[in-house]
Amino acid sequence: MRFWITKNSELSIREQLVRQVVLGILSEDLPAGHKLPSVRALARRHHIHANTVSAAYHDLLQQGWLVSRSGSGVYVRTTQGANSEGLDNLLTVFLQSAQSHGYSPEEVFKRMEHLLRPQIYERILIVEPEAAMRDILRAELQEHITTTIEASAAHNLDNNARTVVVALPTRAAKLRASLPDAVLCLTLRLRSVPSSLQGETKPGPDIVISIVSQSPEIRDWARAMLIAVGLDPVAICELDPASSDWKQRIGRGSLVVTDIVTAGEIPPGCMVKQFRVVADSSIAELINLCQR
Questions:
Q1: Residue 40: CATH number of its domain
Q2: N or C: at which end does the chain have fewer Cβ atoms within 10 angstroms?
Q3: CB of 266 within 8 A of CB of 241?
């Protein structure tokens, strides 16, 4: 994965590195077990101080995103399984491979149950504490899935085998621990930065870019993505549609990066780029579970 460093950003270089690594891991651009560049190599490549790179790696190690291997370097965290024989060894390798693609052992077990004893899920429940993000996730899924889709700040079920619960990667582990064993809980994988930018050209120097979304996370992700590809932070304006004057603050001819919910409210005359959250692989997985 390539790193983009902007030295005149309001984000410190340390924070830019941390955010780009986290986004890379969540979107699987940095797969489990991937070795990151050494501190000296990354510092030399981007003409930054080695202490800054070291501090960013330290933050990521403390947060559990990375693991340090003595004498070898820094790697995206993965789970090493037991070295056993026969079927146990095959299952260990399988679970390691599944984890490297973002699937927890619990998800693997429940999906195996579904494959061995298939059932069609009749309801999707999005559990997401942020109201704006709930609406965005539901709208993205409803574009492709005809099954009933509901969204809530917390799960409102006890033991419903016909409901599949979904959540973003930063919420899924805690949510899964609070659910009954019979309930299937899936992690919604994020759309990667390269796939979001595929086919796009860098805007000209005179273009003002507005990021418009009621979700603070969408605004943060989109801003990090735009800075990562070398856009001047000064040319980026963040707007919350909850404010009364947000439409007047968008200039005609501006490039507007927005979410699926807000896209229909953008004034005419603007170039609109929708920032999508959910990866195609997660949508395909839900279609398979609900619409056989």
A1: 1.10.10.10
A2: C
A3: no
User: What gap in Å lies between CA 128 and CA 175, rounded to an integer?
Assistant: 10
Torsion on CA atoms 192, 210, 131, 217, rounded to nearest 10: 40
For the stretch 72-118, pLDDT in tens is 899 998 744 433 355 666 676 677 777 777 777 777 776 776 666 56
| CA quadruple 201, 205, 207, 212: dihedral, nearest 10 | 70
Question: What is the domain extent for residue 46?
Answer: 13-76
Q: Are residues 144 and 286 in the same domain?
A: yes
Q: Are residues 183 and 285 in the same domain?
A: yes
Q: Which helix (H) or strand (E) holds 184?
A: strand 184-187
Same domain, 157 and 225: no
Region class of 166: left (phi > 0), else alpha (psi between -120 and 50), else beta = beta
Report the candidate in 233, 238, 203, 223 with the shortest Cα–Cα distance to residue 23.
Answer: 223
- Ranges assigned E (strand) in 5-81: 66-69, 73-76
- Quick check: 291 pLDDT over 80? no
Cβ atoms within 10 Å, residue 255:
21
Residue 6 lies in a domain: no
pLDDT at 231: 77
Burial call 206-244: b when 16+ CB within 10 Å, e when fewer = eeebbbbbbbebbbebbbbbbbbeebeeeebebbebeee
State mean pLDDT over 203-220. 83
Q: How many domains does the chain have?
A: 3
Render pLDDT for 135-194 as a digit per residue (tens, 0 to 9).
999 999 999 999 999 999 987 765 566 889 999 998 888 888 888 877 888 899 988 765
Q: Are residues 199 and 269 in the same domain?
A: yes
The answer to the question of residue 112 being in a domain is: no
What's the predicted TM-score (pTM) here? 0.63
* Location of structure tokens 């949510």: 175
